[in-house]
């Protein structure tokens, strides 16, 4: 605080009206003066000197009263000036830009931080419209917003809760801000105060982080896509090439069985070879289906998911029921693969970890999206299990679905187990974005 402010506060502290001794002396003097006036009124005719003394005393008291009143007025003004100086010092030392406008939205206060943010001196902006610091496209909406805020009677609120606000520097450079607005009345005038902060660096960091996350998600999706293509190729070769070779071997083994001499040992060995060959054929089909069920490409999502659930029930011993419509809207290959892999991962987790006796799968379409629900009556999943760094299957599922614009929700089921819900747009958002 400057020297004038300190002197003003000292004068306030020394005010006579704040001194108990001065107040008591004044009251005693007033009582004596009243008694003196009463005596003069009663005895004034017999003692003219007394009446003159009373008049002189009254004039002195009136003069002193006027002097005290003037002094108190001056002290009050100094007190107000000191308070304003202190408030101005606080406002100027604030780290955020502070701008106050009157009801016509002309600037009446512009602190030092605002000078730095907008790159202009306060002397150049006081009395000018606030709109000079707003991009042209936002000026009319901003004026309407402030007027509406004034009618609400709310003392303060944050501006731009949903969207980013933009301001304009004196050199014409636009930059993002976050701001709050308050209103007050003084001397019958309405004033609005905006406290704002330049968030250019933060927004750049946020944009860079979002871009990095988007790139990582796209890279992950491309890796998944490449893996699916490789799985499809291997599954097709297993089904076509190796499957044909194994079929030829079975035919040759059948021919050999018919032309062998009647030797029990040879017949037993051929039978063992046939059994081993059948197991090899079964394993080849299973591996091929695990890599990429060809019926997903040939017959569609409904048939492939139904086969997956039936096969899981046979292998795991878990009673698994599926509820699917007769037909689903046409979906892209990426969406069909994501949904199928999501159901496959869910059933795998049920078989490995849930200890369930029953499982239910519901597949349907509504509101332009595929909806899947997988539920079991097992031990359920704990929140800490969801956060495990080794839960790669579930994390991979989330990433795959999120890349397509969908969502995955895992929670406790009413039956006590785990319930997984997936929602995937019929056409993934990533597929609609331009390359």
Structural overview:
The protein folds into 4 domains: 89 residues; 105 residues, PAS domain (Beta-Lactamase, 2-Layer Sandwich), CATH 3.30.450.20; 91 residues; 140 residues, Histidine kinase-like ATPase, C-terminal domain (Heat Shock Protein 90, 2-Layer Sandwich). With 435 residues, the protein is of the alpha+beta class. The N terminus and C terminus are likely disordered. Helices cover 60% and strands 18% of the residues. Helix 7 runs antiparallel to helix 8 and helix 10 runs parallel beside helix 11. Strand 1 and strand 2 form a beta hairpin. The strands form 2 sheets. Strands 1, 2, 3, 4, 5 and 6 form a 6-stranded antiparallel beta sheet that branches. The protein has a 5-stranded mixed beta sheet with strand order 7-8-9-11-10, covered by helices on one side. It is built from 14 helices and 11 strands.
CATH architectural type of the largest domain: 2-Layer Sandwich
Secondary-structure content class = alpha+beta
Look up the CATH topology of the largest domain. Answer: Heat Shock Protein 90
Taking the sheet with the most strands, its summary is: 6 strands, antiparallel
CATH evolutionary superfamily of the largest domain: Histidine kinase-like ATPase, C-terminal domain
| Beta-strand fraction estimate | 15-25%
Topology pattern, helix = H, strand = E? HHHEEHHHEEEEHHHHEHEEHHEEH
* Overall number of structural domains: 4
Overall residue-averaged pLDDT value: 77
CATH class category name of the largest domain: Alpha Beta
What proportion of the residues is helical, as a percent range? 55-70%
Number of strands: 11
Instruction: Give the number of helices.
Output: 14
Low-pLDDT runs of 5+ residues are 1-14, 430-435
The global form is elongated
How far apart are the first and last residues' alpha carbons, in Å? 61 Å
Rg result: 44 Å
């Amino acid at each position: 605080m400057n020297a004038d402010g300190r002197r003003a506060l000292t004068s306030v502290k020394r005010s006579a009206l704040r001194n108990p001794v001065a107040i008591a002396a004044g009251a005693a003097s007033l009582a004596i003066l009243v008694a003196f006036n009463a005596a003069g009124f009663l005895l004034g005719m017999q003692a003219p000197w007394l009446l003159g003394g009373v008049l002189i005393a009254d004039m002195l008291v009136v003069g002193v009263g006027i002097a005290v009143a003037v002094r108190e007025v001056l002290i009050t003004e100094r007190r107000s000036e000191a308070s304003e100086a202190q408030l101005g010092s606080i406002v100027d030392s604030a780290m955020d830009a502070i701008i106050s406008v009157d009801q016509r939205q002309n600037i009446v206060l512009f602190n030092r931080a605002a000078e730095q943010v907008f790159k202009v001196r306060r002397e150049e902006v006081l009395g000018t419209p606030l709109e000079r610091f707003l991009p042209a496209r936002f000026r009319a909406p901003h004026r309407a917003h402030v007027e509406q805020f004034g009618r609400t009677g709310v003392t303060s609120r944050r501006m731009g809760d949903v969207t980013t606000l933009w301001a304009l520097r004196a050199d014409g450079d636009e930059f993002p801000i976050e701001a709050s607005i308050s209103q007050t009345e003084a001397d019958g005038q309405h004033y609005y105060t905006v406290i704002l902060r330049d968030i250019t660096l933060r927004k750049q960091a946020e944009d860079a982080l979002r871009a990095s996350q988007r790139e990582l998600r796209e890279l992950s999706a491309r890796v998944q896509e490449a893996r699916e293509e490789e799985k499809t190729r291997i599954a097709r070769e297993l089904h076509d090439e190796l499957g044909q070779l194994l079929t030829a071997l079975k035919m040759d083994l059948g021919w050999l069985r018919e032309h062998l001499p009647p030797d029990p040992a040879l017949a037993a060995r051929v039978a063992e070879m046939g059994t081993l060959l059948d197991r090899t054929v079964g394993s080849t089909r299973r591996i091929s289906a695990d890599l990429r069920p060809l019926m997903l490409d040939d017959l569609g999502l409904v048939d492939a998911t139904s086969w997956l659930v039936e096969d899981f029930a046979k292998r795991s011993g878990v009673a698994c029921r599926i509820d699917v419509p007769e037909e689903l809207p046409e979906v892209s290959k990426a969406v069909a693969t994501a949904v199928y892999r999501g159901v496959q991962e869910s059933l795998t987790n049920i078989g490995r970890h849930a200890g369930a006796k029953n499982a239910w799968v519901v597949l349907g379409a509504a509101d332009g999206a595929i909806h899947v629900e997988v539920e079991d009556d097992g031990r359920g999943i704990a929140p800490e299990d969801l956060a495990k760094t080794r839960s790669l299957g579930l994390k991979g599922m989330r990433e795959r679905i999120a890349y397509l614009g969908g969502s995955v929700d895992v929670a406790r089921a009413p039956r006590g187990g785990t319930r997984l819900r997936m929602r995937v747009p019929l056409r993934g958002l990533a597929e609609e974005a331009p390359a």
